[in-house]
Amino acid sequence: MRTLKYIGRRLLVLVPQLFLISIITFTLVRMLPGDPARLELGPLAPQEGVELLRHQLRLDKPLPQQYIAYLQRLLQGDFGRSWVNSSSVAEDLLVRAPATLELITAGMLIVLVVMVPIALLSASPSRGWLARAMRRISFGYGLLAGALPDFWLGLVLIFVFFSVLGWAPGPEGRLAILDLPPERVTGFYVVDTLLAGNFDTFKSALSHLALPAVTLAFVYGGPIFKMVRASMEAALRSDYTIYAEALGLPRRTVLLWAMRNAAPPAVVVTGVVAGYLLGGAVLIETVFNLNGIGQYAVQSITTVDYAPIQGFVLVAAVFTMMVYLIVDLLQFMIDPRVSARAS
């Protein structure tokens, strides 16, 4: 019951947050340079036609009236229509969101499966060859992580693994040009191809996802890596760990206790980084031509297309808040101090 009450309070806070975000986004987007009506009709269109289109799009109305009309449509699930493509923004986001979520999920899995174990091993006080190698790797990665721009690293990986070595496919999208997309079930090509039993297309989808996911994980996994290592080192050097070892407890038990005490700060940083992954996916999708909502937002900004920009910002806000809610719930479960304060 305490957990349900906590979730209920957090979801209630979500409503005014989204309302304020919608107001800020609506106002800032309309401060972008350029006239959407002129951009849609072209520079040679007569001024009368431009004014007529501005009237049809309600751009000639005061901002409060425009926002009220936008909010009424938004409450009905209508994110508006793209003025450039004449398509529904909600449908565009639904079609493109799985590509972005697949990229973010793959990047986070690489961080959790590869980088976190390396960070834990490098935090060990052992003098074995494996621990020494992990410490050297972590030292080098700590210097590089965060210092390399994601788009630059993506271009370097394309050059090395596609142009030079030929081990990876080029930036042609989520599949090879001649491959047909699988039947949509989850929208994740890697999952849908497995469900369909199409292993050739599965290999193609996995190979096209590898370089973007590695780029995302390498650049944005640095804070998680450093926090896991620092928290684990502090836990292993703490008084309760030394006391547990002095009592003769098994090494595995001591490590599990240390990992649990090191988990809360690492979970918080992981949640913060997961929120940033959506922003990082914007440039990576453009470099690798993945056609996700990040690339959709970039194209909308260049054409001053209001509705897709607003839709992307709202989706990003909901995604970030859901991630933070999951982080808070994990903290609620693993840290008794948080659950005691929440109750």
Walk me through the structure:
- The protein is mainly α and 343 residues long.
- It folds into two domains: 2-75, no CATH class; 93-302, MetI-like fold (Orthogonal Bundle), CATH 1.10.3720.
- The chain is built from 15 helices and no strands.
- Helix 5 (89-123) packs across helix 6, helix 9 (199-220) packs across helix 12 and helix 10 runs antiparallel to helix 12.
- The N and C termini lie close together (10 Å).
- The model has no long low-confidence stretch (mean pLDDT 80).
Strand content: under 5%
**SSE ordering:** HHHHHHHHHHHHHHH
CATH topology of the largest domain: MetI-like fold
- SS content category: mainly alpha
State the low-pLDDT regions, or none. none
Number of helices: 15
Overall pLDDT level: 80
How many angstroms does the end-to-end distance come to?
10 Å
CATH architecture of the largest domain: Orthogonal Bundle
Let me know the largest β-sheet.
none
What's the count of strands?
0
Write down the domain tally: 2
User: Which geometry do the CA atoms define?
Assistant: globular
Radius of gyration: 24 Å
- CATH classification class of the largest domain: Mainly Alpha
Query: What is the share of helical residues?
Result: over 70%
Task: Summarize the SSE layout with pairings.
Elements: H1 2-29, H2 36-41, H3 47-56, H4 63-75, H5 89-123, H6 129-144, H7 150-164, H8 189-196, H9 199-220, H10 222-236, H11 239-246, H12 251-288, H13 293-302, H14 306-334, H15 336-342
